[in-house]
Design goal:
With 473 residues, this protein is mainly alpha-helical. Among the domains are: 83-169, Alpha-Beta Complex (Glutamyl-tRNA Synthetase, domain 3), CATH 3.90.800; 314-367; 375-466, Arc Repressor Mutant, subunit A. 45% of the residues lie in helices and 10% in strands. It is built from 19 helices and 12 strands. It has helices spanning 19-35, 53-66, 81-93, 104-111, 177-187, 203-212, 244-249, 254-262, 277-283, 298-310, 314-325, 339-350, 359-367, 375-383, 388-401, 407-420, 425-437, 445-452, 454-467, and strands at 6-9, 38-43, 72-76, 97-100, 135-138, 145-147, 157-159, 167-169, 192-196, 220-224, 227-228, 294-295. The protein has a 3-stranded parallel beta sheet. A 3-stranded antiparallel beta sheet has the order 4-5-8. Helix 15 (388-401) packs antiparallel against helix 16 (407-420). It starts with 5 loop residues before the first strand and ends in a 6-residue tail after the last helix. Bound molecules: glutamic acid (GLU) and zinc ion. Zinc ion (ZN) binds next to loops.
């Protein structure tokens, strides 16, 4: 191929940005960026009934969030009807298309029980002209095969005799999807068509149209493998979390999402899994895409997100977490948020969360007046915890007397009183942690106490102690 590659993402605005579509967009984008090519965004909104204009914005905002910037577009296919109709005229003039006045009922009546379903080419040689109620059909050659040059799937061949003379203009004059799709790809000089495998069966029609339109060098195809859920079923909008928007709202990082999406059907030969955007651009090869279905595993995505969170510089982590720390997302009153206190905890929090929306629960004990006590943790770790009243009493005394309020001496005195009660340090921390933070998981306890301060720590221990029955002495 000569010249720079031109690739396009051509979503239909019939839903929010689906992870499968986002994966297609990404693979096109990666290839274009690596090859110094052009990435085009084309909105295929010819289906007036199913397309919703407001979804165009949902798709572009999802792409922007993922960092998939486009060089041309967004083109709206619905505004290119002239071009599509002109192409149809050319096809008629060249004998590649003919008018058909058959109704669906007539076709069904004629083909009932026939071995080859679909249109029976009834009007092929009737020489009809255009007119109301007449659709335009493509004259599919009856001999030979059409071979798709597919980087992922080799060269699947389709027998032309099994392809029906498909409609390209509906009887109301509207161009059919496949016509608009091919005419636009010809017009935009697309060199690579990278899209979901659900489009493979239509590709012979695509190629026949391309050739009939004298579209020049044919594009290379890459039909990407299906995405499936843990039951190996095609992802379903109803059962599975399939919209990119949802991951954005839950606090996933776009770079983690991009990293994970890139591995759905592709992987670098060296087996690396966690890659930055630049590393992906450098390593991506269409030739390394596989054809077998790819499992969209939310657990794995979550793991990737944790890895990318840990890779952020702390300051960057603080910035990314900010939307979750301020109104309306934050669970504390806005004036109680203390940025400096959060910054002190940030490196510890960063080690422990998988998605940003988990950050508030790690630090809410700092910014709420009283900790929200998790009932299960309270029951398990305090009420039924070993020596909890004694431990709380001892901790209050020791913390009250601590010469400096810092994590490491607090650690030391706590280890000591754990030993006095015949407990391991981990166990002894539980009633203290629940009393002070309300939970039995969270960032390291002694750093948490340090940041919370002596007064607030002692007060919370007192409140918890009072909630417990007096210890037998
Ligand atoms: N508009 C089609 C879709 O959203 C994509 C067609 C293509 O990529 O060629 O499924
Ligand atoms: Zn007909």
């Amino acid at each position: 191929m000569t010249g720079r590659p031109r690739l396009r993402f051509a979503p239909s605005p019939t839903g929010h940005l689906h992870v499968g579509s986002a994966r297609s967009a990404l693979f096109n984008w990666l290839y274009a960026r690596q090859a110094g090519g052009t990435f085009i965004l084309r909105i295929e909104d010819t289906d007036q009934e199913r397309s919703r204009p407001e979804l165009v914005e949902a798709i572009t905002s999802g792409m922007s969030w993922l960092g998939l910037d486009w060089d041309e577009g967004p083109y709206l296919q619905s505004q290119r009807g002239e071009l599509h109709r002109a192409a149809a005229d050319r096809l008629v003039a060249a004998g590649h298309a003919y008018w058909c006045d058959c109704t669906r009922e007539q076709i069904e009546a004629r083909t009932k029980g026939s071995a080859t379903p679909g249109y029976d080419r009834h009007c092929r040689d009737r020489g009809l002209g255009p007119g109301p109620g007449r659709a335009l059909r493509f004259r599919v050659p009856q001999e030979g095969t059409t071979v798709v040059a597919d980087v992922v799937r080799g060269e699947p061949a389709f027998e032309n005799s099994k392809i029906e003379d498909f409609v390209i203009l509906k009887s109301n004059g509207a161009p059919v999807f496949i016509l608009a799709n091919v005419v636009d790809d010809v017009d935009m000089a697309v060199t690579h068509v990278v899209r979901g495998e659900d489009h493979l069966p239509n590709t012979p029609k695509y190629l026949l149209l391309w050739r009939a339109l004298e579209g020049g060098p044919e594009p290379v195809f890459a039909h990407l493998p299906l995405l499936v859920n843990e039951r190996r079923q095609k992802l379903s909008k109803r059962r599975d979390p399939v919209f990119v928007e949802r991951y954005r709202e839950e606090g996933y990082l776009p770079e983690a999402m991009v990293n994970y999406l890139a591995l759905l059907g592709w992987s670098p030969p060296d087996g690396r899994e966690i890659l930055t955007r630049d590393e992906l651009v450098a390593a991506f090869r269409l030739e390394d895409v596989v054809s077998s279905p790819a499992f969209f595993d939310v657990k794995k995505l979550r793991h990737f997100d944790g890895e990318h969170i840990r890779a952020l510089p702390v300051d960057e982590f603080v910035e990314r977490a900010r939307p979750w720390l301020v109104a309306p997302a934050a669970p504390w009153p806005p004036d109680r948020f203390d940025e400096a206190a959060f910054r002190r905890m940030a490196p510890l929090v960063q080690e422990r969360v998988f998605v940003l929306s988990e950050v508030p629960a790690m630090v809410d004990f700092l910014f709420l007046e009283d900790p929200v006590i998790d009932a299960r943790a309270w029951e398990r770790r305090v009420e039924r915890g070993q020596s909890a009243p004694e431990l709380l009493d001892a901790a209050m005394a020791a913390y009250d007397a601590a010469p400096t309020w810092e994590a490491s001496p607090l650690h030391q005195v706590t280890a000591q009183l754990a030993e006095e009660h015949g407990l391991g340090l981990a166990k002894a921390q539980f009633p203290i942690r629940v009393a002070v933070t309300g939970r039995d998981v969270g960032p390291p306890l002694f750093e948490s106490l340090e940041v919370l301060g002596r007064e607030r720590t002692l007060e919370r221990l007192r409140v918890a102690r009072a909630r417990l029955a007096p210890s037998p002495r």
